[in-house]
Structures are given as structure tokens and as C-alpha cells.
Design goal:
Helices cover 44% and strands 12% of the residues. It is α/β, with parallel strands linked by helices. The longest helix has 25 residues, at 3-27.
């Protein structure tokens, strides 16, 4: 990846982080940790990878993004706003009564959302259905679904994986946000899904491991995924929960908590410092 392109993505990713933090702070509710860990991958998807049109959100031939870990929607909303689906200022209405930006994304309210998220594990099953529908209709769109590493403790995830491999859905890509932490602590202690890549491989997937904060690796992973034929792909991105905010990084306590005014000021300074570094 060219340096200019990488710098632009880094700058945009920091805006996604800023938007996510601002949304959670304004609502005094939400899930910042996972929103920050997936911000770089989310940025690459919406500004590099996905075939989409903000002017036509329901374009039939668009690529689909299913946020199965729907509670990290602050990152999704920030990316959608920056991509032009709705005004950035609207991020401050997150979780308010009547807002289009609820605590889980709603495809009937928010432009650019492809799936109304609910319980963990459900989104990936919907993504499998979308991928199969594309195959049956002769469409060439691709379907991407983002899962948390804690989420893959859900049995429904593996039912969907069996189905995806059975039907050779090579237009489908599972994205695992492997930040290592869930609401109750370290995923290895709660109910270990490791080794994640070997498990998906055993279910018939092509597996790819990459650093979810390195745009060269992110690009290489998605490029490789598009070349796979005859089976679905699972990309396991190693990430840092709370990435970019000093007091949130690798802290399970920031899975679902909002910063107070003093903490928000520190977060803004952290993001300002990143902006200066990638300018």
C-alpha cells in the first residue's frame, strides 16, 4: 500500500474512533472498547473494500456488511457518517429516543445498515443467508460479517459455519475481532475459543490471520480472501480492545462503559496526539 493511501486511512480511522467516543460520551452509554478495536478494519471496509453507494444505500448489487457484534455500532455509525450516509453531527444523538442511531443498528432506520442486530450470533446466520441468496440470484456481491471473539462462543456461529462451508459460499467473509476480552474478562478464561483459525479450518473455511491495526496486513488479508474459491473465508484480526485511548487499552472494564467528563478530555487528547502523528 502506498504511503499516502495508508496515511489517509490512518487519519480516517482516527476520525472513526473520535466519532465512536463522542457518541458514547454524549449518550453516557455504549460499548467503546470493541468499537475502538474494530475501527481500523471498519475504516478499510468502508473506504477501500466495500462496493457501496451512499447515494443509493439499498442498491441491489452492493456488497453487504453485517455487524453481528451489533453493540459496537458506534464504530459503524462513525464510518457511515464519514462515508456520507448521514451527517457526522448526528453521532451525538446516539441512543436517544427517536434517533436513527440506536444501541444496536436498525436497517429500517439508519441508511447504510444492512442488518438489524440483536443477540450475539444471530447476525452471522443472516450473513450466510445473504450470501446464499446472492449465489442463487447469480449476483456477484460479497457479504462480510463482523464477529467478536467472545461472540464465537455462541453455538449459532458454528451452525452457520457448517452451512456456509456445505454450500461453498466463497462470496462470504467472516471477520473475527480478536481483541482477547469480553464483558467478563479474558476470553481464554471465560470460555476459550482458541485456536480460532484451526476451528474455522476444521469447519471447511479458508483462514487468514492478520494484525487488525496494520493497513498493509488488512489489505493483504482482504485481497487474499477475494481470491479464495469454493469455500468461505474467516479472517482473524488480532486487535487491542480500546485501541487508541490510553486508559481503555486492554481493559475489559471498558467493554460497556462510558467515559466521564475528565476521562473524555484524556481521550480527546489521546486522539489529538494520534492525529499529529499521522498528519
Amino acid at each position: 500500500m502506498k504511503d499516502e493511501q495508508k496515511k489517509a486511512l490512518q487519519q480516517t480511522a482516527n476520525k472513526v474512533r473520535r466519532g465512536a467516543v463522542e457518541a458514547v460520551y454524549a449518550a453516557q452509554s455504549g460499548h467503546p472498547g470493541g468499537s475502538l478495536s474494530i475501527a481500523d478494519v471498519m475504516t478499510y471496509l468502508y473506504f477501500q473494500e466495500l462496493r457501496i453507494d451512499p447515494e443509493n444505500p439499498r442498491w441491489e448489487d452492493r456488497d453487504r456488511l453485517v455487524l453481528s457484534k451489533g453493540h459496537v455500532c458506534p464504530a459503524l455509525y462513525a464510518a457511515l457518517a464519514l462515508r456520507g450516509y448521514f451527517p457526522v453531527e448526528e453521532l451525538k444523538t446516539f441512543r436517544r429516543v427517536g434517533s436513527r442511531l440506536q444501541g444496536h443498528p436498525d436497517l429500517n432506520k439508519c441508511p447504510g445498515v444492512d442488518f438489524t442486530a440483536g443477540s450475539l450470533g444471530q447476525g452471522v446466520s443472516a450473513a450466510v443467508g445473504m450470501a446464499l441468496a446472492g449465489k442463487l440470484a447469480g449476483k456477484d456481491y460479497r457479504v462480510y460479517t463482523i464477529l467478536g471473539d467472545g461472540e464465537i462462543q455462541e453455538g449459532q456461529v458454528w451452525e452457520s459455519a457448517m452451512f456456509a462451508a456445505q454450500h461453498k459460499l466463497d462470496n462470504l467473509c467472516y471477520i473475527i475481532d480478536n481483541n482477547g476480552l469480553q464483558i467478563d474478562g479474558d476470553i481464554a478464561d471465560v470460555c476459550s475459543p482458541y485456536p480460532i483459525d484451526e476451528k474455522f479450518a476444521a469447519f471447511g473455511f479458508e483462514t487468514i490471520n492478520a494484525n487488525g491495526h496494520d493497513f498493509d496486513e488488512i489489505e493483504a488479508a482482504f485481497d487474499k480472501a477475494k481470491k479464495v474459491q469454493g469455500k468461505p473465508v474467516a479472517i482473524i484480526f488480532k486487535t487491542v480492545k480500546g485501541k487508541g485511548i490510553s486508559f481503555m487499552e486492554n481493559q475489559a472494564s471498558w467493554h460497556g462503559a462510558a467515559p466521564n467528563a475528565e476521562q473524555y478530555e484524556v481521550a480527546v487528547k489521546d486522539l489529538d496526539k494520534i492525529d499529529a502523528e499521522v498528519r
